[in-house]
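Worked example 2:
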Amino acid sequence: MKKFLLTAALLFATQAFAQDSMEGHPMPAPAAPTEEQMAEMAETAMRLGLPEGTIKISECVPGMGEHWARPQDLPLGPIYGVLDGSLVFVEIMPSHADFIAGKSWVDVLKTPKWFLKINHVDIEFLPQGHDGYPVPHYDIHAYYVSHDEHMGFCPPPAP
């Protein structure tokens, strides 16, 4: 039953992020994980200091990296960006309605590892939302690497 729930959560999560909001490039969704892959994800999440239950919800997205999250934290997040085994960002996606209502988010973009320092923050308003989260919302990324560096991640295939 636990395996079924984890698989169902992963499938939901991958569908929720089937589209990269920044560049309009499709976000490749991973296949349902095997037990071995689930164990590898748990080990990676622990090594990166991510919360227990954090799993990979997308393959590498151009300009960002892989997306990792706990399915129960979606769609708000936090969502973590990983590239080559390193943490490169933390993201939240608050709805526009929550901003208008005056909702606050305290300590949600915290750094999972004490030695990581935020390099810059990108805030993008998506008035139509995107696949998997089709409501007006903000994508807020706190990057641990320079803008030039992450823009080179996972370049999209040439047309």
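The chain is about 25% helix and 25% strand. The domain at 2-151 is CATH 3.30.200.270 (Phosphorylase Kinase; domain 1).
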